[in-house]
Each structure stands twice: as C-alpha cells, then as structure tokens.
Amino acid sequence: MPTIVTGTEQGGLVWHDTDRATVGRWCKPPEIPDRCYTCFDPVTLAHYPAEGYTERGGWRYGTCHRCEGGRHD
User: Fold this and answer.
1) Which residues of 20-54 are buried (b: 16+ CB within 10 A; e: fewer)?
2) Do residues 39 and 47 touch, judged by C-beta distance below 8 A?
C-alpha cells in the first residue's frame, strides 16, 4: 500500500507507512481489524471501515461490503 506524506503547520513532513499497522487493516487474533484490507477512498486514501474479517495464515484481514464476496484470497 502507499506511503502517505502529510505536511505540518510548521512546514515539516510526516510519513505514514500503512504497511506497518498492528491493528487496522489486519492483525493477529484476538484483535479484530477495524478497517477494510483492500478498499479505500481514492480521495482521502483512508481505508473504509471493516464490516467483518477473514482469517488467513494466522492473520485477520478486514473486509467490507465493497469486496467481491467479502474475501481477498
């Protein structure tokens, strides 16, 4: 996923690495993802809220109603 760069009011830059999330789009049980793993708003680049999840390889991946069949295998 993309690295998001935002500016601060003081003129600095803030780097957001979306692949280093521990809770969000994916996580280890017993945590439940709060964001969809793949679907995001193209304007804000924010992932949509998760409406469920699927488990693969010991990880839980967030899903939403926009996902085809609710799975990302």
Assistant:
1) ebeebbbbeeeeebebbbbbbeeeeeebbebebbb
2) yes
Q: In the 8-state DSSP scheme, what is residue 22?
A: S
Tens digits of residue pLDDT in 6-25: 777 888 887 766 555 556 88
Domain boundaries, the chain: 21-70
Decide: 61 and 25 in contact? Cβ < 8 Å. yes
pLDDT of residue 72: 46
The tens digit of pLDDT for each residue in 22-63 reads 568 888 888 889 899 988 888 888 889 999 999 999 999 999
| Count of Cβ atoms closer than 10 Å to residue 4 Cβ | 13
